[in-house]
Each structure stands twice: as C-alpha cells, then as structure tokens.
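Researcher: Please translate sequence to structure tokens.
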Amino acid sequence: MRSILWWLMGVLALACFALPAQAAPGAPGAREFPPGLQIPEAARTGPDFDVDRATQAYLDLLTPEQRALSDAYFEGGYWLQLWGFLYGLGVCALLLLSGLSRWMRDLSERLLRRTYLQNALYVALWLVAGFVLALPLSIYADFYREHQYGLATQDFGGWFGDQLKGLAIGLVVMPWLVALLYRAVRRVGARWWLWGSGGALVFFVISAMLAPVYLAPLFNDYKPLRDGTVRDAVFSLARANQIPTDNVVEFDASRQTTRISANVSGFAGTTRVALNDNLLDKTSLPEIKAVMGHEMGHYVLNHSMRLIIYLTLVIGFALWFTQRGFDALLARWGARLGLRDRADTAALPLAWAVLTLFFFLATPVTNSITRQAEAEADMFGLDAAREPYGFAMAAMRLSTYRKIHPGPLEEIVFYDHPSGYARVRGSMIWLKENQALLQRESTAPTP
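Model: Translation complete:
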C-alpha cells in the first residue's frame, strides 16, 4: 500500500512540474474574427435574397486556416471523449485491482464507528484519489490543449487553483450525498436506484438555485453590468420578456478563456443575467442582443426546470442500468476483488465504471436533449432580439472552435448545440421571412 501512495504522489508531482514548454498561455492570433459586425453582400436584404446563398456567404467568412483549425480542434474532441472514457475505466480498474479501494474502506472503518460517516470518509478519499489519477489527462485536455488552440488564458497556477476549488466543492457536498445513497442501498436493496433518482431531482433543483449565488463567484468576479448602450439594450430586452433586471451582471471570463458567452441562471429569487467580458469587448451590439435573446429564451421557455426533469429521467435509467450491471459483475468478480456486497463502498469504482459506460453510450441521447432546447432558444432569440445578422455573426465566432458544418449523424452524436451552419441558416430563414418587418423598424445594421 505504501508503494501505491508513493505512486500517486509521483503522478501529482509529474503533472504539476513536468509540463511541456508549449503549455504556456497562448494568444488566439488569427483564429478569431476581429471585433465588429460583418454582413456579407450576399446576405443583404432585397427582392432577390436567397437563404442558401446568404448562408454560404457567412460560412465563407472563415478562412481556410480558421476552418481547418476549428475542424481539427472539434474533431479531436471526439477522440478525447473516447480516451477520457477508457482512461476513466482504467482509473476504476487500478483502484480495484491494486487494493487501494479496499484500503480506503478499511481505513474509514478503523477511524469511524458509524456506517454513514465511514461511507462519507471513503467517498472523500475516493474523490481525492480519482482527482490525482485523472490529473494527467485533465492537464492535457483542459490546460495544454486549450492553450495549444488559443482558447485559454490562465497560467498553470491559476488553472490548477480552479481545479482545486472544484475538488473542494466536491469534498464538501458529494461524500454526504453518496453516503445517503448507500443508506438507501442498505435499506431498500435492489430498489436503491429509485431513491437515487428522487435524490438527484432534489439535488439538481437546489444546485440550480444556489450555484449562481454561492459557487460561480468562487471562480470569477461578478459586478453590475457597465453603464452604456449595451446595458440599456439588455435591460430593455429583459423587461420586454418579463425577466428580472435587478441582477444583471458581467464577469471576468477572460482570465480563463477567449470564448464569448452569456447566461440566464437560477430561479425562485436567484435569477441572474450574466454576460462575460469577452462578449462585451469583442462583439458588436447586434451580436450581444442576439446572444442575450437566446439566453433569455432559456428562461422564458423554462428550459432550466425542463432539462432538470429530462436529466432526472436519464439518471433514473442510468442508475437502473448500473444496478443491473453492477450486481452481475459483483456476483462474478466480487469475491476475487475482496468486495463484500452492493453496500460495500470499496465496490464504488466498479459501480462508477458501469455508470460511466451508460453515459458514454447515451451520449447521442443527452446531446440531443440539450440541442433541442438550444434550438428552441435560438428561435426565441431571433424573435425577441430581431437581430439575424447579429446572431449569424455570433454563430460564426463560435465556429472558430466548433466545426461549422457536420454531417447529420455527426451532429446527432457529438453536438449539444446546433451547428454553426444550422444557426446561420436559421438566421437567414428568419431574415427572409421578416424583411418587411425589419425595413419598417430600421434599415439593416452596418458594420
């Protein structure tokens, strides 16, 4: 066991200090579009306006270099999902085959008397061990690779500090929740997955309420949205859609990433409209209005609660699948691995491996659930903000790191948002059908 602990410490030291030189913070360079709205000539309104021609004109704003870089980054993510899945299974196998999982269980039982507390301590040790073992892949996928493509801005110390914050949050919350799940396992046996599904629903609702207030500020600074035309436009759009405006903020995402983003989060008194500083500093007013119209669509269409319900149903199937697969594997291999029964916390890596398998296979389902809600918010945003050029340009900015035109099956499997092509084309369809409306309100915006 001592050799295993020294090995874990070696992994952590290697991850922290043996980074390749290329992992230094990079600059987005030519990958990004310059600030300002761009409207291709073929996308201008008129009697001969053609949706396909206008869409292609927007797609042609990407240079061959930008498109190649975007495709390489996004398609590489497909393989990263596979390697992440296999790496996770390897971590679970190491915990079981090395005896580390049993050692953590035995240590918990020696230190504490109550079963609930023993389970909680084991989960805390399991989280730390998993964090350390997964660190090499995390450093590559979330730090080195993001800098390689000019999408990250943090140095390693800042990035690793955020990872430790995430681990700390997990250590505060997860041991008690998983210990409750084990209590259900002991009391109701094979029906534990039903209790776990109900608990997941409660957890998701509480998290959605508390995360904007207590968790997000641990990673970024939030302050009232700066005065000016953007603030006036966002407030007007929020009031028009009956969204509270007493908590409209901006946050310093640029300390971590070059990406643009915004969100409307929380409910039951914790609703907050948040724009990141990249969106404010790198885009035009029509783009900001279009993005905010989309985000406000999530709020008005009650996507938060709907997605919680859908996710809970998926979790229910996942836990049922885990219960069936876990019991079968435990009956076959449990004695050889020194595992007692389904209520033995030392078997948690085995259960986690089965759960991971389910979500890997269910990737097209979970992505499609989210993508449907995003498509609905797209349409709402176009109707609310009436900024088709802004929305098309925002979609093009996102397409500098999201493959812009995937195949149909590719989009179903790998995309949790509509593709850039689908979003630009949707904007042009809306524009074609609303030319008279826009002409009555004002002339088309200029760059």
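Researcher: Any highlights?
Model: The chain has 17 helices and four strands.
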